[in-house]
Amino acid sequence: MRKLIGILLLAIIAGGIVLSLKEIPFGIPKTKIGQHFIQKGIEETGSSNIVTSVVVGYRGFDTLGEITVLFTAAIGLGAVFGTYRKRKADIKAEPPSLIVDTGCRFLFPVILLVGAYIFFHGHITPGGGFQGGAIIASAFLLMYLGCMGKRIKDNTSKVIEVLGGVTFVGLGIIGLLIGKEFLFNFLPKGEPGTLLSAGIIPIIYIAIGLKVGSELSGIIDNLITKSQ
Amino acid sequence: MNFLNNYIFYIGAFSLIFIGLYIVLVKKNLIKVIIGLNILDTGIYLFLISLGYITEGTAPIFSKYSLKAENMVDPVPQALVLTAIVIGVAILALAVTLAIKLYEHYGTLDLRKIKEQKW
């Protein structure tokens, strides 16, 4: 009965979507704003990766809202686990074998390096703060799975997280202080395609990378250590 | 065939969305519902990305100066999806946390057996 109602409901929605989707062609440019970003983006922001210039430059305020959503989710997760009571005996896990332990110790700094590379070069190559942060969090996930008993320091990750957020908002407010709009790109744009270009965009993306990395690591830490 | 060539990405995206919606509507296990929501999420990312696609287009990154701006795909949906993926992971973690707490409280993940929940 439930299945029938579900399928019926979905069929109605699917009919409506097919009717409207027939009007949307595939494979041709649809928005004027996207064309403008591609044509003018490199001279207006100095970043040769147009996606980065949209995320941090044109839509920087929106990105500030999105990392706030991420922050709220991480805080909510911590709050839900806050009522955690220590069980009578923590489950004793078997220590990892030599191969797993050595591999984890060897790979951990390499993954951190790749993550840092990806968010330092977010304005010239594919990548950026969100992707680099996710890679850094995956390094910490490997550490929790492979090197049993090691964990991140709670306060250090909180400090890095807060510093990332403060850098983002502070750079935005400097734009207001010199008489322009919030998140105004006040640094010299430099030559597109080099590491020191695009003004405040790489600095903000590094801050986002550190913030996302420490937040996702905090989520992993909460899920693994407090839910046993 | 022409129809398939033109609409295959939309069909794929909406198949994922409807599979996700069906799981959310029909399944009784909370973990399966969360997995359904995640599949729905993936379908939406695919739909947004395929809206911005341009036939034979390249990524909107000027890694070489010889690249022409006319051949590049729309950067706006990509920028939206980029942040949406990371937020999706955080929301998934929050949902799993709530499921863990529900299991600790009621001793079951079956939505029909959780008494306070009216459906």
What would the keywords be for this entry?
heterodimer; A: 228 residues; mainly alpha; 8 helices; B: 119 residues; Helix Hairpins; 3 helices; elongated
Walk me through this protein's architecture.
The complex is a heterodimer of chains A (228) and B (119). With 228 residues, chain A is mostly helical. Chain A has one domain (48-74, 94-226). Chain A contains eight helices and no strands. Chain A has helices at residues 2-21, 32-45, 50-58, 60-80, 98-120, 129-146, 154-177, 201-226. In chain A, helix 3 packs across helix 4 (60-80), helix 4 (60-80) packs parallel to helix 8 and helix 7 runs antiparallel to helix 8 (201-226). The two termini of chain A are 38 Å apart. Chain B is an all-alpha fold and 119 residues long. Chain B has a single domain, classed as Helix Hairpins (Orthogonal Bundle), CATH 1.10.287. Helices cover 66% and strands 0% of the residues of chain B. Chain B is built from three helices and no strands. The longest helix of chain B is centred in the last third of the chain and has 32 residues, at 75-106. Chain B is elongated and about 65 Å long. In chain B, 23% of the residues are buried. The model of chain B has no long low-confidence stretch (mean pLDDT 83). The interface between A and B is large, with 61 and 44 residues.
